[in-house]
Every structure is written in structure tokens, then in C-alpha cells.
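User: quick one, fold this
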Amino acid sequence: MQMSQKEYINPFSQVSEIYAQKLDDASMSGDIVLLEQLVCEIERTLPDVDAASQARLYYSIGTVYSDVAQAKSLSHEKSIRKQLYAFRKSVGIIEDEEYSKEEYGPYVNPFKCLLYTNYGNTLCSCGRNIEAIAQYKKAINIYPLFGMAIGNLGRVYQDYGVMDYDDGHQDYFHYFAYSLLKKAVECKDPNTHKAAKDCFLRAMAVYIPQYVEGFLQKDLEIPQFSYENCEEKMYREWAVENNLFLNTLNDLPVVELCFATDVLQLPDMIVSIDAKPIFHGMFNQIKQEYVYARYQYYLSLQFREEVHYADKETHLINFADFPQYGIRIEQLKSAFKTLYGLFDKIAYFLNSYFELGIHERDVSFNHIWLTGFGAGKNHYEYKNVLNHKENFALASLYWISRDFYDKFEDSPNPRLKRISDVRNALEHKYVKVTNGWFPARVNGEIDDLALYVTEDELSALTLELMHIVREAIICVSLCVHVEEQKNRDQLQNKLIMPMPLMEYDDEWKL
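Assistant:
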């Protein structure tokens, strides 16, 4: 039965709506002093309003903070931190199950479209294009004709097409970029303002007429793949639908089995004639561990009709908090731990490739961005320093690391803080996974040593972690490409001899 108009509820308070309008007016008029005053007022008001209104106010702060930061001469990085914090606080609140109810739809859904789009724009500005794509897609899934998300998704695909060093992949990205930009320019959505459409038109104008007519405006032919093995087909369909393949084309807005392969590799590299293929070896291992973790996670989602034979006759004690034990739960834990461990392996790769000179026992995903740490005998000066401002793919890796290790206001990314806490407990302490049926029994009354996590939460955290690790692995490949282009430019007048490497055959993976 359809709800009548009178039954819909606006969860946003009048106070939050008034502040939002004031901020919009001040931003449009360029009144920076008033903007700064309003932001300060809102920050004082936040503790006194309801949750939905907090989401509305955090969003408002995020949208105008770049203007405020510029007026206060704050660094770009500090401005980005503030925006990320505000948008994530808003997302964390408004994605609560409470606000997915139909009665809030006409108010919450348009708000989510704006929130995801502006959050995506901030992610793009700090190099995290892959995560930005996910946010734009979320907005378009809510409202398929939302021009601002469509156009910005087109722009990020255009950037992706420039970044990806595979010629065939570039064509795919530019095809979808042009299509989306054109759709945004022609859309009737009133939220897609003229300045944005002009921006999208300029982005379309970079393509020469021959390329537009000869490829971009034609029907795209995507090779069709099929798998005779039903189990393999189901696995690959699941992974490609969840954007989990190490394949840049798996970020496109279409789900195709021809993208369901882990084809990502390192670009061509310039090395001395006697150099060892250490980087390809490291990258192989990083990829293989990711693939293993992805499959372990997939297996943990497959509920068994009978107990696994390896679990039979294992003597365990039952408790009143009803923890879950079994091979399937351990597969979930194993996937989580393997994925998290890949961050330090990526740091180990970067330390070697960029010749940072960090002692291997001190290499971590956090330390590689520092110029030195410790004091006295424990102080280390690095040979080189990673400059994420000179390599767009390094920027993504930098901001991922800051999400885990820095404080943005009262916390870093709250979800990643929880991921870190669970990882530390899994590796060094003691975790109990429950089905969540008895929440009152996990407050320490039965067991005050364990960190409790429900299977649903651990599964959700693992999937989120997998997306972040995938983004990081792709950016490792892209950042090496940027550096190799610099090396190639410096050696343009010198003879560079090719040295092909043999591909590892599938039949050897027994």
C-alpha cells in the first residue's frame, strides 16, 4: 500500500534547515566572515540537536569548509581532514537503519544524494578516486538521474583513463566518461546547476572529434565470458558485483564477467642489467595473499548444511554468551587478518622501491610517510622521503594511512578505528564472535578478557577492509607507473633494452 503524502516525516529539525540555508546564502554571496561565524555556531549547536539534524549540520560544515579554510589560510591538508571528518560523521548517522524507513524517504534520499556526491568530491581532491567512485555510485543508485553525481563520476572515470597505463583499459574509461558527462550536461535535474554543466562540457571538449565519432559515440562491444563450472561462476559473479577484482575495469558502472580477473600487474620498469626482479616478486605475493583472503571471505559466507569434518570431535566448552566456533568462522577471521597484514607488506614494497632507507624491522604503513621518528639512539633519518603531493597514486595511499593512524577531530575514520581495534584483538588478544542474539551477555559479565564482535559486524568490516586494500594495491601499481614515466623521461636519449618476464601458468598453481 502506498503511503499518503501526510504520512511522510521530515527527520531534520527546523534549526538544522535554517542553518543550512544561511550557509548556502553566505557561500553564494562569498561572505567568508559570516561563513566562519556560522560554522562556529553550528559546532556549538551540534550536541543539542537530534541525530538526523546532526547529520544535516555535519554535511553543511563539510560543504563550506574549503571556503572557510581558504579564508583562514589553513593548509589544504587541514581543510581536507575537516571535510572528511564532517562528511563521515554525517554518513555514519544517516546510514543508520532508522533512516532507511519509507516514511523518511522523500527527505532522506535527496539528502543522501547530495552527501555522497560532495563526500566523493572531497575524496577526489585528496587522490582517493576509487573510493569516490563508490560514493557517486551510491548517489546514482538512489536517484539514477542525479546529474551532479553522474557528471562527477564521468570526470573521475576520465581521470582514471589518464592514470591507467593499459591502452585497452583507457578506452573503456574514456567511453564511460564521455557517456556520463554527456548525460549530465543534458539532464533536466534542477540540482545540476549551470556552472557544473559548463565544467562537464569542458571535460567533454578534451576529446578530439575523430575519437568521439569513431569510438566514444558508438555502441561499446564488451566481450562476453561464461564459465562451465557453476561454483566458479558463482564465485566470480559475487566478486565482480562487489568490485573485488584486482582489475581497474571492475570499477566501471557495468558488471561483466570479462572484468572478473585479477589482471593488475606492475608497469614496465627501467632497471640495471644486473637487477633482480624483486619488485615483481613482492607484488606477486601481495596479489596472491589478497586473492586468498578474498576467497576465504567468500567461503565464510557459504553456510554449510552439515558440520565440516575438520570440526568434528573437537572438544570445546560451551558458555552462556554463546560464542561461535568452527572452520567457517576461522575463515572469516583469517581473511580479516590476512587483509590487514597487507598494509605493512605494501609499506615494505614502497620502502624498497623508493629507497627510503628504513630498517626493515621499523617498516610499517604508518612510518613510511615520516621523515624520521624516535629519539636518541632510536632516531632514524630516512634516505628519501615519500612525497604524496608529487604522485597522485601515492596520495591515495597516504590518505588511507592517515585514516588508520591520525585523529580527525575526536577520532579518525570511526569505521577504520573499529577495524584497527578488532585486528589488534585478533592478532594479540582474544576475540569472541557471536550471532548477536544475546547482546546483554557480552558486556564483560561472563568474559571480561574477550573483545566481542558479531559475525555480521565482522563480515561487514572484512568486506570494507577488502575494498580499502584493493584500492591500495591498485594505487601501488599506478604510483610505480608515475615514477617509471619520470625515469623514462630522464633517459629518453639512452638505449633501453626490453627484458620480458615469463608469465606464471595457471597449471602450475596446484
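User: anything notable?
Assistant: The longest helix spans residues 455-490.
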